[in-house]
Design a protein that fits this description.
Layout: E1 3-8, H1 18-27, E2 35-40, H2 47-51, E3 56-63, E4 74-79, H3 95-106, E5 111-118, H4 130-150
Parallel strand pairs: 1-2, 1-3, 3-5
Antiparallel strand pairs: 4-5
Helix pairs in contact: 1-4
Length: 151
């Protein structure tokens, strides 16, 4: 069983770089051999082909404050294939759309989870905010625990 970890975001937009920083941290750890880690500036349609070849996918991203959550709040949710705009392709792809593309184009969709942390800032600046920096080790541990339950 192969697992793909996708950390994505813009490291020049403060907390938006969380996915990249988290994936790089995970890459420095001892993980099961069947785990592949990739980082991206943003998700793109080409990733649907890669997703169709794995059994599990872990997406890591910064999150907007949607319900009055404090910056640094860690959220985890299972993902299902879904398109927000059926029949259309835009320049922005979310994980659910990529999963739907993998299923439609290649006949396979991996079991997928999204790990995210509520951002404090998306300003034009490198590095993470103090709140997201403090959440990063807890996020890494949560992802590691999940990894060892699926491999």
């Amino acid at each position: 069983m192969k697992t793909l970890i996708l950390g994505y975001g813009n490291t020049l937009r403060k907390d938006d770089g969380l996915g990249v920083y988290a994936a790089e941290t995970l890459g420095s750890l001892s993980l099961p051999n069947d785990v592949e880690i990739r980082t991206y500036h943003q998700l793109s349609p080409e990733l649907s082909f890669i997703l169709a070849q794995v059994d599990h996918a872990i997406f890591i991203d910064a999150a907007l404050d949607s319900n009055g959550e404090k910056p640094g709040t860690i959220k985890t949710r299972a993902l299902q294939p879904c398109t927000s705009q059926p029949g259309s392709i835009t320049h922005h792809f979310d994980p659910e759309t990529l999963l739907a593309m993998a299923e439609t184009l290649y006949g396979h969709v991996p079991q997928a989870m999204l790990f995210s942390v509520t951002a404090a800032s998306f300003d034009l600046e490198e590095g993470l905010s103090p709140e997201v920096t403090a959440a990063l080790p807890v996020l890494i541990e949560s992802i590691k625990k999940y990894l060892f339950t699926i491999t």
